[in-house]
Write a structure and sequence with these properties.
- This protein is α/β, with parallel strands linked by helices.
- The chain has helices at about 15-20, 55, 75-85, 120-140, 170-175, 195-205, 225-235, 250-255, 255-265, 275-280, 290-300, 310-330, and strands at about 1-5, 25-30, 45, 65-70, 90-95, 110, 145-150, 155, 180-185, 190, 195, 215-220, 225, 245, 270.
- The strands form five sheets. A seven-stranded parallel sheet has the order 3-2-1-4-5-7-12, sandwiched between helices. Strands 6-15 form a two-stranded parallel ribbon.
- It is globular and about 60 Å long.
- The protein starts with a strand and ends in a 17-residue tail after the last helix.
Length: about 350
């Protein structure tokens, strides 16, 4: 099987690249450049920027069975891919997002039949628009599209959380005894998925004609509260984290980007029914617990001090949110009422 990854060197796709090569797939990566820490031995590397029309034209003369675009985010990206691959491939997989599902949800258990709609987050709305365009292309012209929706998926190089993650900033705060913000009361439910488990699911879909015109999410079945998630991270770092619960609406007053990711995704209890991908990929099962996955993640950071990047801006935003919240509410928690924007000097 000949497979093209547009991208293939990111947080999720790196694990998929490795597994595809392990399974003997004839894999090509179209990428602007490889990270020095990631050398996919056995893959064909095609250098170029997919958003550059002349560089993307290299792909028109090449033959692939399945194409996976890891870096398509907008309608413009999807229209480009339709032009490049229309009539030339057997399967096109669009990487969407589980944040596309209706927010706020009407039920905590999410299946692929859950409607898609997100008034809070532009990122999710763009993914929804891409899905709708591909569905129309499948219906009207038979374009062989398949949609895959990851949720919060992480690997060794990417530390997952709701506020202050991705790099080492959150763990550094925990180790220095500084407060870590947990949105809401910390009891809403969430699912963390290791990229190696996601890879097993998506690669099992490759080449399957029954996937065309369909949508799949691929996640772990392990369900945790956000308090549990942050405490597991703390234990892996060797500390008991000092958690402070702050409403998502309050956080949004200080940082629209973080707020959109909370209200458009992580503020609600979400559990995924993975029956559909399990039916399409017999034997699929996520096996990496969050406790094990986060240990691997911190081992990776600990193996090289240069990896422990701290984002000063993230720390500053978190400190400001905590300071304003404590100054507003700490003196008298018996008084209640809605958050008023005019009470805060943001």
């Amino acid at each position: 099987m000949k497979v093209l990854f547009i991208g293939g060197t990111g947080n999720i796709s790196t694990a998929c690249t490795r597994l595809a090569l392990d399974k003997g797939i004839e894999l090509s990566l179209f990428t602007r450049g490889l990270s020095p820490r990631f050398a996919p031995e056995g893959a064909r590397i095609i250098s170029g920027d997919i958003r550059d029309t002349h560089q993307a034209a290299q792909l028109k003369d090449l033959d692939f069975d399945t194409v996976v675009d890891w870096v398509a985010y907008t309608l413009e990206d999807v229209e480009r891919d339709l032009s490049l691959f229309r009539g030339r491939i057997r399967q096109y997989i669009f990487i969407s997002s589980a944040s596309a599902y209706r927010k706020p949800p009407l039920h905590y258990l999410i299946s692929e039949s859950t409607p898609i709609a997100n008034p809070f987050w532009q990122y999710a709305r763009d993914k929804i628009a891409c899905e709708e365009r591909l569905n129309r292309a499948f219906r009207e012209e038979g374009f062989p599209a398949c949609v895959v929706r990851p949720s919060l998926t992480y690997g060794e190089t990417w530390l997952p959380c709701a506020i202050g993650g991705h790099d080492y900033t959150l763990v550094d705060r925990m180790k220095r005894g500084k407060k870590a913000i947990v949105h809401g009361d910390g009891q809403s439910l969430w699912v963390m998925t290791h990229n190696s488990d996601f890879a097993k699911g998506i690669i099992g879909l490759f080449g399957n004609p029954r996937t065309l015109g369909e949508q799949y999410h691929i996640t772990s079945d392990e369900v945790l509260s956000w308090d549990q998630i942050y405490r597991i991270i703390g234990r892996a770092a060797g500390v008991e984290p000092d958690l402070i619960h702050i409403p998502s609406d309050f956080v949004r007053l200080f940082d629209e980007r973080i707020g959109a990711g909370l209200l458009g995704d992580k503020a609600y209890s979400v559990v995924f029914d993975n029956s559909k991908v399990k039916a399409a990929v017999p034997g699929f099962q996520a096996t990496v617990s969050f406790e094990e996955g986060i240990k691997r993640c911190l081992d990776w950071f600990d193996s090289d001090p240069n990896r422990k990047a701290i984002t000063a801006g993230t720390n500053q935003v978190m400190d400001r949110i905590i300071e304003r919240y404590e100054s507003a509410y700490a003196p008298d928690f018996s008084r209640s009422g809605p958050i008023r924007r005019d009470r805060f000097s943001i």
